[in-house]
Amino acid sequence: MISEEFPFKDECYQIIGAAMEVHNELGCGFLEAVYQEALAILLDEKLILFEKEKILEISFRGNILQKKFIVDFLCFNEVIVELKATDSIHSEHIAQTLNYLKATKKKIALLINFGTTRLQYKRIIL
User: Fold this and answer.
1) pLDDT for 15
2) For a Cys-Cys bond, which of 79, 92, 111, 126 suits 75, CB 3.0-4.6 Å?
3) β-strands 69-75, 50-56: how paired?
4) pTM higher than 0.85, yes or no?
5) Measured between alpha carbons, how far is 54 from 77 in angstroms, rounded to an integer?
6) Rounded to 5 degrees, what are φ and ψ at 80?
7) How far apart are CA 91 and CA 64, in angstroms?
8) How remote is the C-alpha of 67 from its chain's centroid?
9) Distance from CA of residue 110 to its chain's centroid?
10) 3-class secondary structure for the chain?
């Protein structure tokens, strides 16, 4: 039996590659919103299916809550992409992204940090 290392492997590589291109061109030091806008341009150029600032519903015991999550990107209708522009990926960023997965029943998220001299990213799998 062949098992995948993680779901949507090729799709994640495409997203990470696009983020690396953005970081290589812009470097670190901008606000998160700048990287979000630049990444949207590159995802579009690369024909990567995405929705920017996607509102996701949260369900609790079969009920849809009024409170919604807004993720930076939902790519390929399956991969949550959360962007940061901080000094490092912190445990609270991981917890936030993990909560997005739990609440939305998605299987994988990418947490991408543009705030350091080298792009940081973490795959979070539920």
Assistant:
1) 98
2) 79
3) antiparallel
4) yes
5) 10
6) -80, 135
7) 27
8) 20
9) 4
10) CCCCCCCCHHHHHHHHHHHHHHHHHHCCCCCHHHHHHHHHHHHHHCCCCEEEEEEECCEECCEECCCCEEEEEEECCCEEEEEECCCCCCHHHHHHHHHHHHHHCCCEEEEEECCCCCCEEEEEEC
Taken in order 107, 6, 16, 91, the sign of the CA dihedral is positive
What the chain holds in terms of domains, given with CATH numbers, is 9-125 (3.90.320.10)
**Which amino acid is located at 73 in the chain?**
F
- Residue pLDDT, tens place only, 49-73: 999 998 988 888 989 999 988 999 9
The whole-angstrom separation of Cα 4 and Cα 36 is 29
Q: What is the distance between the alpha carbons of residues 40 and 52, in angstroms, rounded to a whole number?
A: 7
Query: Which tokens go with 59?
Result: 């369900």
